[in-house]
Sequence to fold (453 residues):
Amino acid sequence: MMRKKRGTEMNTIHNRTTPADALVIFGVTGDLVHKMIFPALYAMVKRGVLNVPVVGVAGSKLSLAQLNKRAKDSIKQAGKIDDRDALDHLLSLLKYVGGDYNDLGTFKAMKQALGDALRPAHYLAIPPTLFAKVIKGLGSSGLADQARVIIEKLFGRDLASARELNRIAQSVFPEDSIFRIDHYLGKEAIMNILYFRFANSFLEPIWNRNHVASVQITLAEDFGIKGRGAFYESAGCLRDVIQNHLFQIVALLAMEPPAYQGYGAVHSEKTKVFQAMRPLQADDVVRGQYTGYRKEPGVAKDSDVETFCALRLFIDSWRWQGVPWYLRSGKCLAATAAEVLVELKPPPQRLFDDSAPVDGRANYLRFRLSPNSAVALAVRVKRAGKEFVGDQRELYLLNEQPGEEAPYERLLSDAMAGNGALFTSSLMSWNQPDKVGTLRLIPGARQDRLLAA
Ligand code: BG6
Fold:
């Protein structure tokens, strides 16, 4: 039988949903792979969805035995090794290529390691400054034909650099072979926002400027940058989690119903939300930095990179005109939690003395995204007794389901299967971070207060 050759002619008949027959992980010795990716690969093997060679690539000289040890340590740290066969199988799939990304020899060695594989998925778990270089290397070494590329964040630093990276990626890969990861989109609790909004009928009549007073989205973490100084210095809170993770949440909450059942329709409705966002003004943004950040390894002594950011957004659409959206996130805060709070307007007539908003909050809908996943509706109910007074109580629905796929497990297997539903598209771009970069930073801001506010 004639061996199929890599080549552009094959592209024309390549089915975009044909599963990848190898996974290449650039940056296999990095932090992200150690914390998240090895455990995800292990879970994928356990589920039976990973059974192709996994080629790790990195700059260091490493033996396969050393890579195996890293993989085992990582899986152990993430939980316990409860399936020896799955672990052994994963290790049997691993290969390693060490080399400089500037050197074409590294790509040649990868080609060799890929053997008969024709449709690899290349996952770029590397610093963003290397994305363009690796993508071009894949293109010029023939490793992009029929392949997919999965790109980590940050996808550019601003509009111009995001466009440039897009241009480079699209000059090497067709758009439907480019998978831009935002791991929040792989979270069950986030997918539930889309489902909850459009699978229920009670919400739609109140989901607009007439009934919603404000929307607050919080991603708080009680830990610091955990040794990621070099990365964090190039990112800051706004680029690290707000323009991607929190904005995706905004889009899911604010979008109109998709026109048909399909992710193309979801992407296009989300894009309209970004298009309707009002440009931020200086007083819409607060940036803060936790005390001690400048002493972290890899951080400049006079760094003005923000580790906390809060912003107020407006979406100038028919549905949301005038409703403030408050987004905030930060490191070293009082708690670790992510949630959405949609506060409703009080009843038009105050029939009872203790009606909202006098006594605490008005009604609200709360999506708890992590650490546990829940949905709660806060309502007032009457207290027993002669008086018409009551309390704010939550109808609380814990929505944790055992056996949920972790985000990276879901996203990597989707990308390998050619399913781009949970990835961001090139349509979704936003040009605010540039402007925010010039804003004043509040060193050691009392973030615990801000969080509690
Ligand atoms: C990552 C950021 O994208 O998201 C981290 O780089 C942040 O700084 C993390 O801690 C939060 O994700 P999760 O899934 O832990 O809420």
